[in-house]
Known about the structure:
Two copies of one chain form a homodimer.
Chain A: E1 12-15, H1 24-33, E2 38-42, H2 51-60, E3 64-72, H3 79-99, E4 103-107, H4 116-137, E5 140-143, H5 160-170, E6 175-180, H6 181-184, H7 190-197, E7 201-206, H8 230-239, E8 246-248, H9 253-256, H10 260-274
Parallel strand pairs in A: 1-2, 1-8, 2-3, 3-4, 4-5, 5-6, 6-7, 7-8
Helix pairs in contact in A: 3-4, 7-8
Amino acid sequence: MSAADIDTLSRLAVHTMTTKPWDLETAAEKYGAAGIPAITVWRQWLEGRTLAETKQILDDQGLAVAAHCRGGFFPSTEPSGRQSAIDDNLRCIDEAAAIGAPMVVLVCGAVPEQSLPESRKQIAEGIAACLEHAGTCGVKLAIEPLHPMYADQRSAVNTLGQANALCDTIQSEWVGIAADVYHLWWDDRLEAEIKRAGSRILGFHLCDWLSPTHDLLLDRGLMGEGCIKIREIRGWIEATGFTGYHEVEIFSSRHWERDQDTFLEEIKQAYLSVC
Amino acid sequence: MSAADIDTLSRLAVHTMTTKPWDLETAAEKYGAAGIPAITVWRQWLEGRTLAETKQILDDQGLAVAAHCRGGFFPSTEPSGRQSAIDDNLRCIDEAAAIGAPMVVLVCGAVPEQSLPESRKQIAEGIAACLEHAGTCGVKLAIEPLHPMYADQRSAVNTLGQANALCDTIQSEWVGIAADVYHLWWDDRLEAEIKRAGSRILGFHLCDWLSPTHDLLLDRGLMGEGCIKIREIRGWIEATGFTGYHEVEIFSSRHWERDQDTFLEEIKQAYLSVC
């Protein structure tokens, strides 16, 4: 399944983390002026003002909120650590509701000191403990499978297959999946697991895998700079009926050092030409 | 399945790359003096002398050869590139036979400019083209699935499941698998795929995943320094009937900067205490 060309920005969203040097006011103003209709807000960008003030900043620019980033990090070797993670996720759901985000993206967490099966069990328990509040607030929880190179510290959910299995276990309309090409592109089971996920796909994240990659965290590429067959994956995603935003999420110390206006313009052009 | 304690060095092998500062003569002498019974020779350590001379150096220390490292890198966007890769693998098989290595480890290759399915097809074709020579020389080909973070440039075979599928396709007694805990530990299907692999497991490689990891290539840990449940994985491997060497393969600029005699002693102790 190959996807149709993208000829408008109507489904483009940008993560505040993508233009990290910009504060929320600047990011909102710049995205709005660039004709980008939606923003994904990272929690750090909420600091220093009320949630209502944050919402006003976004509303003033006519920006929809694609998602709130990020909850998760449920595993801990201590019960108190697991409880405080749940408490923090409940607050994150509140924040999402307050700024009009339809979902919280979950980076599920992992702890190097304990086994992956134990972390996965704690993730399922943590999500289960947040479901009622998510439903009350009308905010979905999007499990983001992370690349296997993050299995030690960031997430014990490392394939779309595992995210699907977790959704099978949890069985809730308030839980779905955020699929990021960076984390998933290498997997020979990807097309089949996207089909299996179907309407569980709540979010779709874009960037690229640089070759070579110099840093495990902060060396992602702009779409087209790397080797991911983004359009093919988008075709599989859209074949499920997905009509949500295409969220550009790029962690890159290289791009953050550049002029962010130029970078934002390149993001728009790359989105239209290679995605 | 948990593995029994290791109480002798009788199945320990060390890769020449693990003690990279040492040339072959030094490595052979040091391993021999340390009571390590086997060595895996990387091709760079063959340079500057005949294969017979290399074999004599190993024989003089009573070292068995666990494997020859490394063949593979079959994919190329050009047919001439694919042919020269095959030619190089045939030479690698000759080298293995000459130094008494029962197998060549295959890092199968990948090319960022082409799709992973295309690279996988070329890998299958490349291996197929080497089978007759492998059989003639009595040298097995061990497909090493590489961590997904190497899918762009080093290998399009990134899970044990994919390696098993490749073996299913090739169907030859001369092809099997080298299982490295570093590449495979994160996979929730690992135990099942080891069982499926069964007697295909030709090699078993040890090191550890550091948390955090600072470099994609050269920041592996000594066993026990990281988060891999090595003993559990060894139990699964040995439940297949595997009786081969436990090969220590650590790429670490940090350890290479240290005194290599001390490091070798630490390898022995770590092998006996945490593997």
